[in-house]
Amino acid sequence: MEASDFFKLLKRYRIVMMVIPLITIMVTYYFVRNLPDSYVSQTQIATGIVDQSQKLPEDQTAQESQIFMEFANVIATIKLNTIVNQVSYQLILHDLTSDLPFRKPSKLFRDLNANARAHAIEVYTKMYNTHGALMLWDKDQNGLNSLINSMRYDAGSIQAKLGIYRWENSDFIHVDFESENPQLSAFVLNTLAKEFISYHTDTEKGNQLKSIHALDSLLQKKKLSIDKKTDSLKRYKIKNHILNIKDQASSLYAQISDFEGRKQQAEKDIAANDGAIKSIDSKFKTSGKRGGYFENVSSKINTKIAADKDILKSYTDAWIKSNYNNYYKLKIDSVQNILTNEINQSADQSGDSPLSTKSSLRAQKLNLEVTYDLAKFSLNTLEKEIGRLKGELDQLVPHEAVIQSMESSIDIDSKEYLDLLAKYNQASVLSNFSVKLRQVDLAMPGGPQSSKKMILTIAAGVISEVFCLLVLFVLFYLDSTIKHPRTLASVSGLPVLGYLNVITGSILDLRKLWDTDNKNKMQQFKDQLRSIRFEIDQELNDHKLLAITSLGEGEGKTLLAVSLAYSYSIINKKVLLIDGNFSNPSISTTIKPQLFIEEYFKESPDNNQAITNDVHVIGNRGNDITLLEIDGEKAIEQKFIELKALYDIIIVEVQDMSKMNKAKEWLLFADKTIVVFEANQSMNETKNAAIKYFKTLGPKFGGWIFNRVPLDDK
């Protein structure tokens, strides 16, 4: 498949390619000659999508993808049938109520009587006011819809002539409409803009109100939830006597820490005082008698001291339990002063005694014992208070978990409430904000557009020409026929000896090929035949028997055989031409030879004598017979040996390969076999089988002769 073949195909059908576009142009012009002029009106609608002057201060700048999506939504909304139907109702109502309709009334429109016209006006008005659509399953409304369609006021007809797009990167939507009436174009655009802005405004306001109502409802529910949870927290704290759990825990930790410090100090005092008391006791032991005199003198005072110690213990215990209340501290200090005075009094009473030294030690010991007992008493009380405080702290832990959970839930609800409140406030502000959409340019009746008659006519011609080219290319692409010798060689895998152009006239009147009058006309054919003759000579070398066959009937092997025979005779070769085609003996029928194969290949002396008398053609009688059925193989081979001795070349036209069994018998005796293949034929299963057989012949296969090539092919 080559480009040159396609151009040859175009050349062959050049008349068709000129006639079809010409007819198409004429037909198109006939139909568009009365095409009315068209008028285009246009308007622009400001959307406010990218106009920052129409946005609230807190509004963020939208991304490009969001802007594109918003413009796409606006354009899609303009094209909605709901809006376009409103324009349709306005158009039909105008024509029904006006003496100057926009369009010439249709037959259905003209057939309306007064009652039908009044009913139509009533229904269309109702549909327009309610933004309704005609129900096609209702017979009456279906008829009214047909009336709109007949005037080409339906949504589909209007949308087909609408052009809607964003004007470059601006904030404006450009809308244009084309019709045969400038007033109609302007009316459609102005009505469409008004209906779109009204629809969009109502829809946006309705959505905003729904949002406000929904947010208000959520706010009320969330506030009620917060109040319930706050009340539950309050009641829980009251029930468990909790004011502020963090402060209470901090206070308990501080008290425990303070008590722990005082406990450590008390333990130190106990140890120190205990050591001092033991040191004094050890002195008493070394001095002998243990102060009997002193006890006798101060027994009363000692009793008072013991009683005051008990009082001091009780005050100390109360002082610690009261978290070191200053009231009890004053009491303790007062009792300690009393004890100090009593101890000093005891020491004074024993001042003149011989045991005055021991008395002094005894007084010192009493002071130490008071301090020791005071520390010991406070230690026990401190341990109890520490235990009590830790118990209170342990009781706060589960309360803290519950309170934290409740407070966390309240905090979450409070945040959600604030978010809802912000959205509610924003929605309220937006609902009071002015509508962004507005028609900035009123559509006006425009002038007539350039006539499309010429454009349509030229387009029709171009399209028809392109269609012809497309059809021819498809035919060329699907064409699997072999058009070139090299293609045949490539497909078959066998060599091609040459090719012959197609010729007209009698195929056997070959003397005229070499006449001077036909020299220029048949020069190409003669040159090709001479080339083939030369190639055959090279293939035959010293051999003489050449078999000519073909893949199918009527491919030109008879012409080639006769032409080669005559060509060899021109160069003074003694040529024998044998008609071996029993199924179609064309050579025998045309030349009418004196000798036939059926007689010659029989053992007869008369036949042998006959062949020597310059008989150059052996025909056949066209019987249903094969070569080997006439005589045996060895006898036929002997006959061919005799013929080779008499002639320079023997050319045999053999049966075509569609009857392969008859052809094979001839090819057994051939020195070389050449096959005629007609141009513009395609391969099939039978032909492929024959090609496989030719390949088995090996050197005995001479090659293809590509026949009937068109005269303009090279």
From TrEMBL:
Protein name per Swiss-Prot or TrEMBL: Lipopolysaccharide biosynthesis protein
Q: Which UniProt keywords apply?
A: Membrane, Transmembrane, Transmembrane helix
Task: List where the protein spans the membrane.
Answer: 12-32, 454-478
Give the highest taxon in the source lineage: Bacteria
* InterPro entries linked: Bact_polysacc_biosynth/exp (IPR050445), P-loop_NTPase (IPR027417)
